[in-house]
Amino acid sequence: MTSPTAAVPAAARARRSAALGLGLIASLALIASVALRNPPDASAQGSLPEVDTALLLAVDVSNSVDDTRYYLQIEGIAKALEDPGVISAITNGPQASIMLSIMAWSDRTEIAMPWVRIASAADAKAVAARIRRMPRINGQFTCVSRSLRTIADKVIPQIPAKANRTVVDVSGDGREDCNPAEPVSDVRDELVESKVIINGLPILDGSEAATIEQWYKDHVQGGHGSFVIAADGYGDFERAFRQKFIVEISGAPLPGRHAAVR
Amino acid sequence: MARRRHIDLTRPLATGVRWRHVAWCAAFAGTLVGPHVTLPVHAADFTAKEVTTAMFGAAAGAKLDYSGRDLSGLDLAGLDFKQAQLTKANLFGTDLAGANLSGANLAGAKLDRAVITRADFTAADLTGVTMLRPTIYSGLEPDQREAPRFRGANLTGARIMAVRLDGADFRGANLTGADLAALDYPWGDDRGSPQRAVLLGCDFSGATLTGVRLRFAVLHFARFRGADLSGVDFTNADLTKADLSGANLTGANMTGANLDGAVLSGVRGLETVQGLHLARNIETAIR
N or C: which end of chain B has fewer CB within 10 A? Predict the structure, then answer.
């Protein structure tokens, strides 16, 4: 049996010492908080495959995304995976492979496609076919902060590979409207601290078309070499996504106004 | 870096926070240090990320030990607990939707207000757990496909109160001495009646329910085929069209129970059942 709390007795001692004074309490609490968070000794990480990029596609399924818009996004992702340029970018990296997962996000999150490894054109096409078969997922509100929190706490820690780069790709047509417990940028910064790159694909459509790109740049985009590429409406999603996909996988810098280093 | 959650009292409060406590604390703190204060409201021993990372990284059979730890309020939905030790763990309000807790040891754990939609407790040790008002379904209308699974679990002495568990699978489980009786409030609920456990279509086939309290429970279409129901308190329970075929009812109490269309064929110990003459609609039961 493995204990994730290698020094639990330290925590217990810290509690019992409460009467000894604030300084002592603070010291023990600090020691305990570090000790309590020690990772378990037993690890299954050694057997994980190495890939160039772990790419999570976070797709907006909030209320503003009707069936037509949803399938435009899904078809755009599937077509990008079938694109020779994308396949070339995947197979020409040092490890010649990537991990890909798709998460639907709104007021709740759902893994629409768990992590899959793509190491060949055949893999890419099979994944594209799988993406087209994914069941429609519906949501209500645009909870960016909560979704990033799920990504930080649940999705990234469970990537079944050693990835040289971890990229989260957030697409959507609206800003946060969930009155979040944590500001979006706080969760974004936490992800960036753990070396995650967050790129944005705002879809310029509807009432927020004029402002959503800048909001994504200010609140969502983060990490070394991160960028925002806007789609000029849902009809432009496929083009924008393919362009973004190639840059994300290849790791090449994106020229022009999109590039940013945080 | 460990993350601590704070509520910024200068911003609107999110739902789900202990409003009353925060309001009192805010009022008190505001008198001391002004309006720009942040107060810790989350006392769990770990963050969701720490638990997820540890569980994911654990080798098969490692069985991480969170016994007695506070995991309350964490979002652990969908996590594979890999038969972890969670004895006496505090899982109050924890989101365990879709989590794999099969084979886990949760003896004495607190699962009050936990979200257990689609959670898998198959063969888990749930001895003595408390499960007050857990969230089972994601929508207002119960979808039985979202019911948690307790097949082969040990629920001896568990207290499962004020719960709606339509369609849950308890086949082969051991519920000896468990309490699923209605919550009795002195003032009743908003309808002036006790809050009943609603267990429509639950499957208790082959389960051991010796001495279980099911007073006022709603058990329409529930299946108890071959179950050991000796000493079960069915007082005022609604067993409409429930299937008790082949069950052992020795010493059970059926006072006021509704047996409309219930299947009693092959039942053992029927002659020892208390209050059977006071059961309702016994004439429509199928023997």
Answer: N
